[in-house]
């Protein structure tokens, strides 16, 4: 049987009446189905609905997704967001405890964009709210326009730290990534190791150094181009290998 892969949802309003929904992009579902070869299981953006122990008793891996919303500053001791900044406190209440428990149990975790930021906050780090407002940093967000080749195309290079997990996967010390974020890591969580850094010093890839299992995060979106970009596909393949090495298939068959 296939492993069960949890995919974190956001709270979003859909329909003419703006009804709240729990949603995750199809790109994560397709990457889970086509590369990980797992069954996608959407994790509600709610601490009460997404019971951590129940989920981790059944799931074989976790993918933490990107989102337009920002992690609540109160969770890392930061100042309030400017008015109008999208937040999703229901998602925060579900994902942060889930991250800590999954890392402790050795359940494989792949954290992407907002999920990357959640990983840092969950383990004791903090965030910059708007990188583009900081001296010496460039704008890591992408203009909101309909052309996907521009919106999700490669935006800048990052330096890959030699000898790291990402270096072994990429086979090089410089790669190009897309860039669709305003927030970024400020104080790196004590348990995280930086594996990739943008030219302006922004940390773009991390690994949990003392994790019981696979636990990595990337600030960019490999799910956007896993069908055409070799490294993006390798990231999901590495996650899949970790799921199976942990016994995900056997667990699902029992």
Shape verdict: globular
State which percent range the strand residues make up. Answer: 15-25%
Mean pLDDT: 91
Question: What share of the residues lie within helices?
Answer: 25-40%
Determine the CATH topology.
Answer: Rossmann fold
- The sequence of SSEs as H and E is EEEHEHEHEHEHEHEEEEEHH
Q: How many structural domains?
A: 1
For the sheet with most strands, the description reads: 9 strands, mixed
Low-confidence regions: 250-254
Compute the separation of the termini in Å.
9 Å
In CATH's first tier, which class applies?
Alpha Beta
Numbering strands along the chain, what is their spatial order in the largest sheet?
4-1-5-6-13-12-11-8-9
CATH homologous superfamily label: Class I glutamine amidotransferase (GATase) domain
CATH architecture: 3-Layer(aba) Sandwich
Radius of gyration: 17 Å
Number of helices: 8
How many strand segments? 13
Structural class: alpha/beta
Structure keywords:
two-stranded antiparallel sheet; disordered C terminus; 254 residues; 30% helix; alpha/beta; nine-stranded mixed sheet; single chain; globular; 22% strand; 8 helices; Rossmann fold
């Amino acid at each position: 049987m296939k492993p069960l892969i949890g995919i974190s949802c956001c709270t979003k309003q859909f329909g003419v009446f703006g009804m709240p929904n729990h949603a995750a992009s199809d790109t994560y579902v397709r990457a889970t189905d086509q590369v990980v070869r797992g069954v996608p299981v959407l994790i509600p953006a709610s601490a009460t609905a997404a019971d951590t122990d129940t989920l981790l008793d059944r799931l074989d891996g976790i993918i933490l997704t990107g989102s337009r919303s920002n992690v609540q500053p109160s969770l890392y001791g930061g100042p309030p967001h400017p008015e109008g900044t999208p937040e999703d406190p229901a998602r925060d209440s579900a994902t942060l405890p889930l991250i800590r428990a999954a890392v402790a149990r050795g359940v494989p975790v792949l954290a992407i964009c907002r999920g990357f930021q959640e990983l840092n906050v969950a383990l004791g780090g903090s965030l910059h709210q708007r990188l583009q407002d900081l001296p010496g940093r460039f704008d890591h967000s992408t203009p909101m326009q309909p052309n996907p080749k521009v919106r999700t195309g490669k935006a800048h290079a990052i330096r890959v730290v030699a000898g790291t997990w990402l270096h072994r996967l990429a086979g090089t010390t410089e790669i190009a990534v897309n860039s669709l974020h305003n927030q970024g890591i400020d104080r790196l969580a004590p348990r995280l190791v930086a594996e990739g850094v943008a030219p302006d010093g922004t940390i773009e890839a991390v690994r949990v150094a003392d994790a019981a299992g696979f636990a990595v995060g990337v600030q960019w979106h490999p799910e956007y181009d896993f069908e055409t970009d070799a490294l993006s596909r390798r990231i999901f393949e590495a996650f899949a290998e970790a799921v199976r090495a942990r016994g995900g298939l056997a667990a699902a068959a029992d």
